[in-house]
Description:
Layout: E1 5-6, E2 9-10, E3 13-14, H1 23-36, H2 38-53, H3 58-65, H4 69-82, H5 101-111, H6 127-138, H7 144-153, H8 170-178
Antiparallel strand pairs: 1-2, 2-3
Helix pairs in contact: 1-2, 2-3, 2-4, 3-4, 6-7
Amino acid sequence: MPFRMKNNVLEGKRMKRLAIEDNEIMQIAIQQEIGRSEESRYDHRLHGVLLVGKGLDCYEVAELFGQHPTTVQRWVNVFNEKGFSGLYEGERQGRPRSLNEIQWKRLGKDLRKSPRDFGYGQNLWDGKMMSHHLKRQYGVELGIRQCQRIFHAMGFRLRKPRPVIAKADPVAQEDLKKTAPTGKKRKN
């Protein structure tokens, strides 16, 4: 037997209003969790269509679900045309990868070597060096920022070389590291 509710009242009893801790952050986290798997995205669309079927308009459902009203409208239209199967995802659109799987693995091996092994004039990889390497070795042109994203995706981190001052006294450098920084003293 279905429950009947009106103004948070269930069979003559008032329900306590519940709250989610860190509500705004949790809403974002829930949206991300929904987007993580194809099955949960299907369920999300299915619930949206159900709410439209219950009498909510696309704007109300969109606000509840954190979607654009046109997206909800598209869900309903595709459900009307194709039924449940219309709510399943096909291939997700997006730009195809610039490197195929074999090239990706080869690049990972390349990055574990020194750039000098490939005849480059520096010891460490950076976005600019990887961009040049991709163009030379693979015929693929990528921007510096995209190369930095690839480093991150492959689990690498940025390492910057420490400059070595020519003719510097190593003993004096060590003494400097061990002393407190100099500067003006504050008046209390």
